[in-house]
Amino acid sequence: MKEVILMSIRPEWLVKILNGEKTIEIRKTLAKGDEIWFYCAKAKPYLADFGDNEYPYKSGGICLDYDLHNIEGHGAEIFNGKIVAKCKVDKVGKIFFNLTHWRYEVGANGIDLSIASCLSTEQIKKYLGIEQRRKGKPKLQSNKGYAYHLKDLVIFDEPKELGEVSKEEYAVMPNGVFPSYEPLTKAPASFQYVWVKE
């Protein structure tokens, strides 16, 4: 077994990762590890895999849809509430905001953070908690975030249930403390370290 990061992500952002449009994931906190598994949040819209089936206005593939009747009518699989993909973490860059400007450090080689994350500068600021005071003056604070550079994406042929990954717990015994691995029953709000079978 090996330890990976299980990251919960809303379907509208996960679909961009799965189709290769979003190659950077921005988070407020740092998760240490070199592999991320993506859990699709249960929130709507539905993230559905239409496979090779004909679709009224798209020819198959993974896409978003709000119409459950349409999804089921086409025999598509819904990914919400499941672990659907994994990828490697190429590097993690720091994003700094202060009173006058923001800075991104990673040796990004000309990568446009907004384009690669599919977020505007204002969306990044809002997510990381950079607010504007009246008269346009920012709050007196310095915030930071983290930009996970994603590579080697693998979409699982069969999405995994939460119970197929394990959380590590410790059992106190008379002769010591020993780890035990229990199936995960609740999705993380942001991320959680889990154990998976290789």
Q: Specify the CATH class.
A: Mainly Beta
Number of helices: 4
Cα distance spanning the termini: 6 Å
Kindly report the CATH topology.
Archaeosine Trna-guanine Transglycosylase, Chain: A, domain 4
Low-confidence stretches: 55-59
Q: Biggest β-sheet: count, sense, barrel?
A: 7 strands, mixed
Class inferred from helices and paired strands:
mainly beta
Descriptive report:
- The protein has 198 residues and is mainly β.
- The protein has a single domain, classed as Hypothetical protein (Archaeosine Trna-guanine Transglycosylase, Chain: A, domain 4, Roll).
- It is 13% helix and 44% strand.
- Strands 1, 2, 3, 7, 8, 9 and 12 form a seven-stranded mixed sheet that branches. It has a three-stranded antiparallel sheet with strand order 5-4-6. Strands 10-11 form a two-stranded antiparallel sheet.
- A hairpin with a 4-residue loop joins strand 7 and strand 8.
- It is globular, with a radius of gyration of 19 Å.
Provide the fold topology:
Elements: E1 2-9, H1 11-18, E2 24-27, E3 35-40, E4 46-49, E5 62-65, H2 68-73, E6 77-78, E7 83-97, E8 102-105, H3 113-117, H4 121-127, E9 143-160, E10 166-173, E11 176-183, E12 191-196
Parallel strand pairs: 1-3
Antiparallel strand pairs: 1-12, 2-9, 3-7, 4-5, 4-6, 7-8, 7-9, 10-11
